[in-house]
């Protein structure tokens, strides 16, 4: 079995310890991943720190050009990277474009796009005040060394969201991939690292102890993390002790509200993918659906028809639309939430009974007959299960949407876009989509409120988050 390596200070680095990466569709080990030692974490941070001053002072045009080369390298290696995503994360290979399953090839394409866009952006000096006596400018300066911790659900795409804006702004990066999906991310960094000066982009791999060693290191100047609220809270506590800036994109449990008068057939496909993209393993998926009583049964019927028609299996096989839950811990959580709903008298409209066999396959499941307070409604399932809650008054639906601590995304669906947007404005979430769900864009800021984190990614605002402002005030 092949042992993969980290990329640190311009070279490939192994470790004395390693662990298996497992294909969630088959249960088979597909490679060995190094478990970085505390000394290796410190070496990676030291390499990033040594490389950062020269990287920050490199002409901006050169850094832009290098970002373009990184995008091309991703494109050139798209097939290899997509296969690792499917084998390790589980999403089908799929494709790119209208009508294609948004799977591994889509994720690699997104990596390319989210590399190109920051390369096109500028952060010019901003004159914030000027009169006859003074001129005040805001200059954007890099933080220094950025510690990035990537999740297992979109292991390459979210790593790119962390890496590229940091590099574009003049920071250097030490990235820790999820221990569940390390190989594809390590291979991505291996491809990119050879195009960059040594120390500019580095990786360390392992379990939570490696992430803790990285975020606690005094040589780290900024932390960016995507993952669970519980882990984010621990990172925030660590960062608070050293007053280290953070960007945290945490759990969702996004509500979706279907307003009266909506055409169930017209919204069914958008709602379906809004809930079940990547088997529901996306922070901003719709995870609780509130449907007006006049439409409830029709919406459920449309979603059921789509769920039953979607082929599920090993994503390396052609024609698959759905893959496995990525890891057994998450699979067991999904099972427990559905069984709790069943025991409470909820109706399992479809799914809910996984067939025995290898892999973490759980059928697409729709559950009705639930109310606020049920575990499946109140807890983020992060899997292929959608609770559908009936409501009679829009005010009640808005109150239900806002009652939980999560505040990442939400959506409102209705025949009148202006009316739906008015409802959307009352939802407590970082992004509220109207007649769509999860439609992120590399130029549009994205981030959460409440317990879904702070800071934003994407676009100019996301790029600013990888910098600190310095005011230069000149007396005339």
UniProtKB/TrEMBL annotation:
InterPro entries according to UniProt: Ald_DH/histidinol_DH (IPR016161), Ald_DH_C (IPR016163), Ald_DH_CS_CYS (IPR016160), Ald_DH_CS_GLU (IPR029510), Ald_DH_N (IPR016162), Aldehyde_DH_dom (IPR015590), LUC3-like (IPR044086)
Pfam family name, one: Aldedh
Top-level taxon: Bacteria
EC main group: oxidoreductase
Active site: 249
The keyword Kinase is assigned to this record: no
CDD domains: ALDH_AldA-AAD23400 (cd07106)
Molecular-function GO term, any one: oxidoreductase activity, acting on the aldehyde or oxo group of donors, NAD or NADP as acceptor
Residue ranges of domain Aldehyde dehydrogenase in the record: 17-469
EC number: 1.1.1.257
Oligomer and partners: Homodimer.
Annotated function: Involved in the toluene-4-sulfonate degradation pathway. Does not discriminate between the sulfonate and the carboxyl substituents and can also be involved in the p-toluenecarboxylate degradation pathway.
The protein's name: 4-(hydroxymethyl)benzenesulfonate dehydrogenase
Organism whose genome encodes this protein: Acidovorax soli
């Amino acid at each position: 079995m092949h042992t993969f390596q980290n990329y640190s200070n311009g070279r490939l680095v192994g470790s004395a310890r390693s662990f298996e990466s497992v294909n969630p569709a088959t249960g088979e080990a597909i490679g060995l991943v190094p478990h970085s030692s505390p000394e290796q974490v410190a070496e990676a941070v030291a390499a990033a720190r040594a490389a950062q001053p020269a990287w920050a002072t490199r002409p901006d045009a050169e850094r832009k050009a290098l970002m373009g080369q990184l995008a091309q390298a991703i494109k050139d290696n798209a097939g290899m990277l997509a296969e690792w995503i499917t084998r390790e994360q589980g999403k089908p290979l799929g494709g790119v474009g209208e009508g294609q399953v948004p799977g591994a090839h889509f994720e690699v394409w997104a990596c390319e796009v989210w590399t190109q866009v920051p390369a096109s952006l500028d952060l010019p000096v901003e004159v914030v005040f000027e009169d006859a006596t003074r001129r005040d400018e805001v200059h954007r300066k890099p933080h220094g060394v950025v510690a990035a911790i990537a999740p297992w659900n979109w292991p390459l795409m979210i790593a790119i969201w962390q890496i590229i804006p940091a590099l574009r702004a003049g920071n250097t990066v030490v990235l820790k991939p999820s221990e569940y999906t390390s190989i594809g991310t390590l291979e991505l960094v291996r491809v990119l690292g050879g195009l960059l000066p040594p120390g500019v982009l580095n990786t360390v791999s392992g379990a939570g102890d490696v992430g803790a060693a990285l975020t606690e290191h005094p040589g780290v100047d900024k932390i960016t993390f995507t993952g669970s609220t519980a882990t984010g809270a621990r990172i925030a506590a660590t960062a608070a002790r050293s007053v280290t800036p953070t960007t945290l994109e945490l759990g969702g449990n996004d509500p979706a509200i279907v307003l009266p008068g909506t055409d169930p057939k017209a919204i069914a496909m958008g709602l379906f993918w809004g809930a079940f993209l990547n088997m529901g393993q996306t922070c901003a998926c719709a995870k609780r659906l509130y449907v007006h009583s006049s439409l409830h049964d029709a919406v459920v019927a449309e979603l059921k028809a789509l769920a039953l028609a979607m082929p599920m299996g090993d994503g390396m096989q052609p024609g698959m639309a759905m893959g496995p839950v990525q890891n057994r811990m998450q699979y067991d959580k999904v099972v427990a939430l559905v069984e709790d709903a069943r025991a409470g008298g909820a109706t399992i409209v479809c799914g809910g009974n996984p067939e025995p066999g290898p892999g973490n396959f759980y059928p697409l499941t729709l559950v009705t007959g639930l109310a606020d307070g049920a575990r499946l409604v109140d807890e983020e399932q992060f899997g292929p299960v959608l609770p559908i809650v009936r409501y009679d008054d829009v005010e009640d639906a808005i109150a239900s949407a806002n009652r939980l601590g999560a505040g990442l995304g939400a959506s409102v669906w209705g025949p009148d876009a202006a009316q739906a947007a008015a409802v959307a404005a009352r939802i407590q979430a970082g992004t509220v989509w109207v007649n769509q769900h999860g439609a992120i864009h590399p130029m549009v800021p994205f981030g959460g409120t409440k317990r879904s984190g702070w800071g934003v990614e994407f676009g100019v605002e996301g790029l600013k988050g990888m910098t600190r402002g310095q005011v230069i005030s000149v007396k005339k």
